[in-house]
């Protein structure tokens, strides 16, 4: 088992979607996983933020972030 820390420093939808996707994959494979928001990434801590904006590949943050919250993956700001 490995330890993963995913750092999100941008307010952009696509990097956030990938960050949440990779964190979900790592956690679902049994790895210790943490997510940390810095700089522009702190805007993702807003619970009223729209998580349904699609990326170029058709997925969105809402496809992955709820898993992280439900499975109590630590998310720091």
Quick overview of this protein structure:
With 77 residues, the chain is an alpha/beta fold. The chain has helices at 13-28, 65-70, and strands at 3-8, 32-37, 75-76. The protein has a single domain (3-76), classed as DsrEFH-like (Hypothetical Protein Ychn, Chain: A, 3-Layer(aba) Sandwich).
Explain the overall architecture:
- The chain has one domain (3-76): DsrEFH-like (Hypothetical Protein Ychn, Chain: A, 3-Layer(aba) Sandwich), CATH 3.40.1260.
- Strand 2, helix 2 and strand 3 (75-76) form a beta-alpha-beta unit.
- The mean pLDDT is 97.
- Strands 1-2-3 form a 3-stranded parallel beta sheet, covered by helices on one side.
- The N and C termini lie far apart (25 Å).
- It contains 2 helices and 3 strands; from the N terminus they run E-H-E-H-E.
- The chain has 77 residues and is α/β, with parallel strands linked by helices.
- The longest helix is centred in the N-terminal third of the chain and has 16 residues, at 13-28.
- Apparent shape: globular
CATH class: Alpha Beta
CATH fold-level name: Hypothetical Protein Ychn, Chain: A
The portion of residues forming beta strands comes to: 15-25%
Estimated structural class = alpha/beta
Gross CATH architecture: 3-Layer(aba) Sandwich
Supply the number of structural domains.
Answer: 1
Neighbour order of strands in the largest sheet:
1-2-3
Task: Determine the fraction of residues in helical runs and give it as a percent range.
Answer: 25-40%
| Strands, count | 3
List SSEs in N-to-C order. Answer: EHEHE
**Average pLDDT rating:** 97
CATH superfamily: DsrEFH-like
Low-confidence stretches: none
Question: Strand count, sense and closure of the main sheet?
Answer: 3 strands, parallel
Output the number of helix runs. 2
Q: Output the radius of gyration.
A: 12 Å
- Measure the end-to-end span: 25 Å
